[in-house]
Design goal:
Blueprint lengths: L3 E5 L6 H9 L17 E6 L3 H10 L3 E3 L2 E6 L14 H9 L3 E7 L15 H26 L1 H5 L3 H18 L14 H6 L8 E6 L10 H13 L2 E5 L1 H8 L3 H10 L6 H12 L2 E7 L3 E8 L4 H8 L1 H5 L1 E7 L1 H7 L2 H6 L4 E3 L10 E6 L2
Helix pairs in contact: 1-9, 4-6
Length: about 375
């Protein structure tokens, strides 16, 4: 399991350029005019994880299969999108389908690239998008509350739960707060997610800076960082232009280019890690002579549920998981030595998988 992240923002902030870099393609047209992206572009990328390469090397795996994540390049939103301005309704519907939002903010000055509002102010841009999403959520909730009135009066338990959750969200939205600030009990989480509220999505602010500012950022990105911290959200600093250039180079050339720019790693790696942290995701591995493979799960996932990510039968017939911590696998030189050293554990159904675990599942067919 990976996750789906929607790339949103005002027109001409660098969304499509970032998407091109992420997917290492030119599938999304990066042009200097609003709405150059009319349909959402979808791309899958491998999640970089040096641990997987190390495990494959030790085990002599013939194939390396990283976990993958999906990015959706969603066309630029504008003020009034909640009322259908700028093809807003279509774009808002696309946002409902993603797990998280990467909100790209223009943090660079460039007279050759038009800003839809005629000025560079990333904090104001963020507020514009957030306002449109909140207005769209309010309209959606008000319509749905009208539609379930009869079921609520009839005592339908599911409708009663939905009404309660929608009114909680509406109260926050009417106070100018996004739905993500609402605290939801565990028993309500599934119903809450099914509401598909736009402002319930976790947000990662992506500060798109100029090439010379990629390492340290600038005053614009500092303002975004302060805003993100106040909201309890995360941010990353990236130069989309640099990332697109790097994506066209071979690994050796890319490393030289990064060194010249005083960057230790591609900004995209930071973006992906930040996305994982945002959604509380982690990785476990299966390793053997045939393949070394990474699997994505949510933090707190039990061993049977983790097995189910590979195949539903693994979860249904789960017996136990043979588990080796990543550090033990590497330091001891593989599965055999780790087992001899007593570092392989047999874990049952109650075991909560940890990030970096190397697992082998036993199950009944």
């Amino acid at each position: 399991m990976g996750f789906k992240m929607g790339i949103v923002g005002l027109p001409n902030v660098g969304k499509s350029t970032l998407f091109n870099a992420l997917t290492r393609t030119a599938a999304a047209q990066a042009a200097n005019f609003p709405f150059c992206t009319i349909e959402p572009n979808v791309g899958e990328v491998a999640v970089p994880d040096a641990r997987l390469d190390r495990l494959a090397q030790i085990a002599g795996s013939k194939q390396i299969i990283p976990t993958r994540m999906t990015f959706v390049d969603i066309a630029g939103l504008v003020k009034g999108a909640s009322k259908g301005e700028g093809l807003g309704n279509q774009f808002l519907a696309n946002i409902r389908e993603v797990d998280a939002i990467a909100h790209v903010l223009r943090c660079f000055e460039d007279g050759d690239v038009t800003h839809v509002e005629g000025r560079v102010d990333p904090v104001a841009d963020a507020e514009t998008i957030e306002t449109e999403l909140m207005l769209a959520d309010i309209e959606s909730i008000e319509k749905r509350l009208q539609n379930i009135t009869r079921k609520v009066r009839g005592g339908d338990k599911e409708a009663v739960q939905q009404e309660r959750l929608m009114r909680m969200a509406l109260a926050a939205l009417e106070e100018g707060r996004p739905a993500r600030v609402v605290e939801v009990d565990d028993e309500d989480r599934r119903a809450w997610k099914l509401l598909q509220l736009l402002t319930s999505k976790p947000v990662l602010y992506v500060c798109n800076v100029g090439e010379s500012e990629a390492a340290e950022g600038n005053d614009f990105s500092t303002a975004v960082a302060q805003m993100a911290a106040a909201q309890g959200n995360a941010h990353v600093i990236i130069s989309a232009q640099i990332e697109e250039e790097i994506s066209q180079l071979d690994p050796e050339e890319a490393q030289m280019f990064l060194s010249e720019m005083d960057l230790s790693e591609p900004g995209l790696d930071r973006l992906i890690r930040a996305g994982y942290a945002l959604l509380h995701l982690e990785t476990y591995f299966t390793v053997g002579p045939k393949e070394a493979r990474a699997w994505t799960i949510r933090q707190g996932t039990s061993a049977p549920k983790a097995a189910g990510v590979i195949h539903g039968d693994f979860e249904k017939g789960f017996i136990r998981a043979e588990t080796i911590a990543f550090d033990d696998f590497v330091s001891l030189g593989g599965e055999g030595p780790a087992k001899e050293a007593g570092k392989m554990r047999a874990e049952g159904k109650a075991y909560v998988v940890k990030d970096g675990d190397v697992l082998h599942f036993l199950f009944n067919t």
